[in-house]
Specification:
The chain is an alpha/beta fold. Helices cover about 45% and strands about 15% of the residues. Strand 14, helix 15 and strand 15 form a beta-alpha-beta unit.
Length: about 850
C-alpha cells in the first residue's frame, strides 16, 4: 500500500476528513523535507505530523507473509514457508531501535502525547512502541531504555542532554530518522530552545539516515525565522538545495474563538489593580455550573491558590469536583488532576501556564481567563484548551481585574480577528548553555574540537561565535579560564588522544544532576510528618514562617511544624485566616505587540465612541480622563503633573508595559536629577510610570525630550540602576547553568543565600582578574537586552521623540494616574491598610 493511501486509510478509520494542511504535510514529509507546521490549537496538528511518520514506517516494513523468510528463534535460525514454525520454538520479540525523537517542553504534555501516538500505531497495526523520557519516569525504566530504545521517544530538552552523557549514546541515535519539536514557539526565545538547537546540530551528524526535522506551533509571528533557527545552517549544501528541503506548512483554516467578557454592573471611574476580580465570583461560579468542565487560568501560582480557595468558599457543593494544577504541586497531584480531567470527573481546574499547551482534555468545553494574559499568543493558546477538536469552537470567558484591562481585551479581540500573534526572539551567544553542553559530550563519548566547532557554528545561537571565543570556551572547561586555572575543581575536561573527555566521575555525577537551563530559587518540599509529599515552594517563603504559622498550599490550609533537610513538615488545620504561599516570578510582562494594540485602541477611543460592551462600560472612566486630561493618540506622549501631600507627581504614559516602564522610570529619574538635584521615587504599571519628587519641578517639552534622548542611552541606563549589582545577581543563574556553582545533591540542596554568596564571590574575582571573561560579558548582555529590553526601549524612545509631547497639569489624579499611585502603596501597607487608604484617595479624587 502506498504511503498516501495509508494516510487516507487512517482518516477513514477515525471517520475524520483530512484537512488540506494535513495532506500537504504528509506529502512534504514523504519527499524528505524538514519544516515547520503552523496550525491553530485543536486542529489536529499532532496527528498531522505523526500519521505520515507511521505511514512511512509501514511502507518500509517488510511484509510478514513472504513465501520464504528467516525467523530468529530462541534456539536456532531456521527457514520456513509462511508460518510453519516448530511448536517448541517461538520468535524473539522484534528488536526496537529509536527512529523518532519527539521533543516536548512540558512533562504535562508528554503523557497525553504518548497515549495519542501509541493509539495511532496500534490502530494501524504498526508494532512500534512509544515511551516517555522525562524527570517523572522511574530510574529502572530509564536503565531499560538504554538497553533497548522504543521506536519513538517523547522527551524534554533536559532529558535529551542527559542522554548525551551516555557512553554509547551514538548507538542509541544511529537509526534516528526524524526529530519533532512540539510547541516550538514555547522553546524558541529561551535557553531551552538553545539546548534543542545544540542537540539537533549533533544528532544530524551521528545518524545513519538523512534526518528530517519538524517543528509544530500554533502561535508564532515570525515563522520563517523560527524555521531557520530550528533546522540550523548547512554550510556545505548549495543554497538552492537548502531551499528545496525546508518548507512551512500552514493551515488556512482559522480556529473559531468565542470571547465573552464578564462585566460588572458598574466600574469605579478611578480604577486600581484587583478592584474588580472577586466581585465577579458569582458569575464565575455560574459559568462553572453551566459547563461540563472548565479550566480557570490565572497568571501566577499564588493567584491560583487564592481563586481556588474563594471559589470553593463561595460554592461548597463543588468540594471534590474542583482541583488545582500548577508547577509547584507534586507529580502525583498533577497526574491525579490530569487523569480526572480526562475522565470527566472534575467540574473545574484552577491552573496556571502548566496547562497552557497542547494537552487534549476532551471534557473541557469552557475556559476562564482571570486578568489580562498580557499577550495575544498566550490568550489564544489558553482559549484553545476548550473545543480541542478539529472544527469545534473554543469558548473563553475573560474576567477583568482592573477596568483598563477592558482596553486590553478589546485589543486582543481585534488581533484574533486579524490572526496576528507575537514574534518570539531567539537567543544567541548563550555561553553558559554551550559550556554545559560540551561537558555533557565529554562525559559521553568525548568530542573532537574541530568537528564539534563546525556543528555548533551551524546553529543560529552561535553562528556569530569566532575562533577566539571558541578557544576561550575550551580553555574554560579544561583549565577554568585564566582566573581559576590554579583550582582543580574548575578543570573538568582534558584532551586525551585527540578527544576532550571528562576528568573524573565525581565531576560527571555533579554535572548530570544539574543539566538544564531553568534556574529558580532553591525549593523546599512540602510534606506531612507521617509521609506524603504535596509539592514544593521557594525557600524564601518558608524562611519567613515560624512553627505554628498557617498558609494555603495545594488548596489546603496547612500549619508549619518545622524545616529539616530542605523539607517543610506540615499538618492540616481548620484555621481559615492564612497567608497564601508566594512564589518568585510575579506578574507577566505586556508583550510589545499588545502594547502597540493598546495604543491603537486608545487612539480610536480618543477620536470616536466605540460601541462595544467593554467601551460602553468604560465610558464614564474615559469621559473623566478627557475632562481632567486627554486620551493620547499613537502620535502623542501624555505627561501629567499633580501635587499632593506626598509630593510633586509626574506621570508619563508610554503604554509600553511594566517591564519597560520600570527601566524607563529609573532612567528618567536619573536624567531628571542631573537637571535638578531632587529626591525621586518611582512607581509603574503597564500603562505608564510615576516620578514622585520631594519638590516641584517646572516640566516642559525640552525636559521630556531630554529624558527620552537616545544619545548615551546604554551608559545612562547602567548609571540609572546599580548595573553591577544587577549583573552580579544575573551571574548567579549563569554560574549554575555553566557548572561553576553546584546547587547540591538531592535532599542536600544549598540554601539561596549560599548560592548567591558563592556566585557573587566568583563574579567579583572575574571582574577583578579576568574582566574579559565571556560569562561576565554575558551577564551584562542579559541585563541590557533581557531585563532592560534594550532593543524595545530604543524603539520606544525613537517613537516618543517623533511624537507630540502633551503636558497636562491636573488638580486631582486622572483615571490613568490613580492605579499607578495605588500600586506605589502596595509594598508599604497591609491589604487592610491599603483598602482604607484607597477609599480615602477615591473620596479625595472623585468628581464633585
Amino acid at each position: 500500500m502506498l504511503r498516501d493511501e495509508i494516510v487516507q486509510q487512517w482518516f477513514l478509520k477515525k471517520k475524520w476528513k483530512a484537512y488540506p494542511f494535513q495532506l500537504a504535510l504528509a506529502q512534504a514529509y514523504f519527499e524528505g523535507y524538514s519544516g515547520l507546521l503552523n496550525a491553530p490549537t485543536g486542529s489536529g496538528k499532532t496527528y498531522a505530523m505523526w500519521i505520515p511518520i507511521i505511514a512511512d514506517a509501514i511502507q518500509n516494513t517488510k511484509p510478514e507473509t513472504q513465501s520464504l523468510k528467516k525467523i530468529e528463534t530462541k534456539k536456532t535460525l531456521i527457514t520456513t514457508n509462511d508460518s510453519q514454525l516448530t511448536k517448541h520454538d517461538s520468535p524473539l520479540t522484534t528488536h526496537h531501535s529509536l527512529k523518532v525523537l519527539w521533543i516536548t517542553p512540558l512533562r504535562a504534555l508528554a503523557k497525553d502525547i504518548k497515549n495519542a501516538l501509541q493509539e495511532a500505531c496500534d490502530m494501524m497495526q504498526l508494532k512500534w512502541t512509544v515511551e516517555l523520557r522525562t524527570g517523572d519516569i522511574s530510574a529502572a525504566q530509564k536503565q531499560r531504555q538504554k538497553k533497548e530504545m522504543p521506536d519513538c521517544l517523547i522527551i524534554t530538552p533536559e532529558s535529551l542532554h542527559v542522554l548525551l552523557c551516555g557512553r554509547n549514546y551514538s548507538e542509541l541515535f544511529q537509526n534516528l530518522e526524524c526529530i519533532v519539536v512540539d510547541e516550538w514557539h514555547e522553546l524558541l526565545g529561551s535557553k531551552r530552545g538553545v539546548q534543542v538547537e545544540l542537540a539537533i546540530s549533533h544528532l544530524k551528524n551521528i545518524t545513519h539516515h538523512p534526518l528530517r526535522i519538524w517543528g509544530i506551533s500554533a502561535t508564532i509571528g515570525n515563522l520563517v525565522e523560527a524555521l531557520e533557527v530550528l533546522v540550523g545552517n548547512e554550510p556545505d549544501l548549495p543554497q538552492d538545495d537548502k531551499e528545496k528541503k525546508i518548507t512551512i506548512v500552514r493551515s488556512e483554516t482559522k480556529k473559531e474563538i468565542q470571547v465573552n467578557t464578564v462585566l460588572p454592573e458598574t466600574i469605579d471611574v478611578l480604577p486600581w489593580a484587583g478592584h474588580i476580580g472577586l466581585k465577579l465570583l458569582p458569575q464565575i461560579a455560574d459559568i462553572i455550573n453551566r459547563s461540563t468542565t472548565t479550566l480557570v487560568f490565572t497568571n501566577t501560582r499564588a493567584m491560583a491558590e487564592i481563586w481556588y480557595h474563594h471559589i470553593l468558599n463561595y460554592n461548597e457543593d463543588l468540594a471534590g469536583l474542583i482541583a488545582m494544577h500548577h508547577g509547584s504541586l507534586s507529580a502525583e497531584v498533577r497526574d491525579w488532576v490530569e487523569e480526572n480531567l480526562h475522565a470527566g470527573n472534575l467540574k473545574a481546574v484552577i491552573c496556571t501556564s502548566s496547562l497552557d499547551l497542547g494537552v487534549d482534555f476532551r471534557p473541557v468545553d469552557t475556559v476562564i481567563q482571570i486578568g489580562s494574559p498580557k499577550g495575544v499568543a498566550r490568550f489564544t493558546q489558553r482559549a484553545g484548551r476548550s473545543g480541542h477538536q478539529p472544527g469545534a469552537i473554543s469558548k473563553i470567558y475573560f474576567i477583568p481585574t482592573h477596568a483598563l484591562e477592558l482596553v486590553e481585551i478589546s485589543a486582543i479581540k481585534e488581533a484574533i480577528k486579524k490572526g496576528i500573534v507575537e514574534k518570539r526572539e531567539p537567543q544567541i551567544m548563550c555561553f553558559d548553555v554551550l559550556l554545559q553542553y560540551l561537558v555533557s559530550l565529554s562525559i559521553g563519548e568525548g568530542f573532537i574540537s574541530e568537528k564539534i566547532y563546525k556543528e555548533i557554528k551551524s546553529t543560529h545561537a552561535y553562528y556569530l561565535m569566532n575562533e577566539d571565543e571558541w578557544n576561550w570556551i575550551l580553555q574554560f572547561i579544561t583549565e577554568g579560564g585564566s582566573a581559576f586555572s590554579a583550582y582543580d575543581e574548575f578543570s573538568k575536561v582534558a584532551k586525551v588522544d585527540g578527544k576532550y573527555r571528562i576528568m573524573n566521575n565525581k565531576a560527571a555525577t555533579k554535572h548530570r544532576l544539574q543539566i538544564g537551563t531553568i534556574v529558580s530559587d532553591p525549593v523546599v518540599r512540602i510534606a506531612y510528618l507521617r509521609g506524603g509529599s504535596l509539592g514544593t515552594v521557594e525557600e524564601y517563603f518558608i524562611a519567613s514562617l515560624k512553627p505554628g504559622d498557617v498558609f494555603w498550599f495545594a488548596g489546603m490550609c496547612l500549619e508549619f511544624i518545622m524545616l529539616k533537610d530542605m523539607t517543610a513538615y506540615v499538618k492540616k488545620t481548620k484555621e481559615q485566616r492564612a497567608a497564601t504561599a508566594s512564589y518568585m516570578g510575579g506578574r507577566m510582562p505586556l508583550s510589545s505587540y499588545m502594547a502597540e494594540l493598546m495604543r491603537i485602541q486608545l487612539e480610536r477611543v480618543s477620536k470616536e465612541k466605540i460601541d462595544t460592551e467593554e467601551y460602553n462600560l468604560l465610558d464614564p472612566l474615559l469621559t473623566l480622563q478627557k475632562q481632567r486630561s486627554i486620551i493620547p493618540t499613537t502620535k502623542q506622549l501624555l505627561v501629567e503633573t499633580s501635587e499632593s501631600k506626598d509630593g510633586f507627581h509626574i506621570f508619563i504614559y508610554p503604554f509600553e508595559g511594566r517591564v519597560v516602564h520600570e527601566v524607563m522610570s529609573g532612567l528618567a529619574a536619573y536624567r531628571l536629577s542631573k537637571i535638578k538635584p531632587v529626591s525621586i521615587s518611582t512607581a509603574m504599571n503597564d500603562y505608564g510610570f510615576e516620578l514622585l519628587c520631594n519638590e516641584k519641578i517646572d516640566i516642559n517639552e525640552d525636559m521630556i525630550r531630554n529624558i527620552f534622548d537616545t544619545n548615551e542611552m546604554e551608559s545612562d541606563l547602567f548609571n540609572s540602576v546599580n548595573a553591577t549589582e544587577m549583573a552580579r545577581r544575573k551571574f548567579r543563574d549563569i554560574s549554575i547553568i555553566s557548572g561553576m556553582v553546584f546547587t547540591g545533591y538531592p535532599g542536600e540542596l544549598k540554601r539561596s543565600r549560599h548560592l548567591q554568596s558563592s556566585s557573587q564571590l566568583l563574579f567579583d574575582v572575574l571582574k577583578e582578574y579576568e574582566p574579559k571573561n565571556l560569562l561576565l560579558k554575558q551577564a551584562y548582555d542579559e541585563i541590557l537586552h533581557g531585563q532592560m529590553e534594550n532593543a524595545r526601549m530604543r524603539t520606544a524612545f525613537l517613537r516618543i521623540l517623533k511624537s507630540e509631547i502633551v503636558i497636562r497639569q491636573t488638580e486631582r489624579f486622572s483615571p490613568f494616574a490613580f492605579p499607578i499611585v495605588v500600586d506605589s502603596l502596595r509594598d508599604k501597607l497591609t491589604s487592610e491598610q491599603l483598602s482604607d487608604r484607597v477609599k480615602k484617595m477615591i473620596a479625595e479624587n472623585n468628581p464633585a
